[in-house]
Design a protein that fits this description.
There is one protein chain. This protein folds into two domains: 59 residues; 47 residues, Histone-like protein H-NS, C-terminal domain (H-NS DNA Binding Protein), CATH 4.10.430. Helix content is 42%, strand content 4%. The chain is built from two helices and two strands. It is elongated.
Length: 106
């Protein structure tokens, strides 16, 4: 039977091998994609990505990985609100001034 130290050493070695294999497979995938792009004369823009610096992923505007909610309300000055969370000051002031929420619906 193995000791705790031996098992932890085995675990560390397996984790190292997993990371190395992931890196190798990822690089292989990147090489395949580059070869296909070269073969068909494609650019990053052809893939619909805004920039290559994002690694081909579109970043969500929320830092927690959530997507930004669609705008549901907009005023003449261009201020917007998704309808989620607290009402922004511009909307509160307009509602207090007699406007209705529907006046700002997009």
């Amino acid at each position: 039977m193995s000791t705790l130290q031996e098992l932890l050493a085995q675990k560390a070695e397996l984790e190292r091998k997993i990371q190395e294999t992931q890196r190798n497979e990822r690089q292989g995938a990147i090489d395949k994609v580059r070869a296909l792009m070269a073969e068909f004369g494609l650019s990053v823009e052809d893939l619909g990505s805004k920039s290559a610096s994002t690694g081909g992923r579109k970043k969500a505007s929320g830092g927690d990985g959530t997507r930004k909610a669609a705008v549901k309300y907009r005023d003449a000055a261009g201020n917007t609100w998704s309808g989620r969370g607290l009402q922004p000051r511009w909307l509160k002031e307009a509602l207090a001034g007699g406007k209705s929420l529907q006046d700002f619906a997009v």
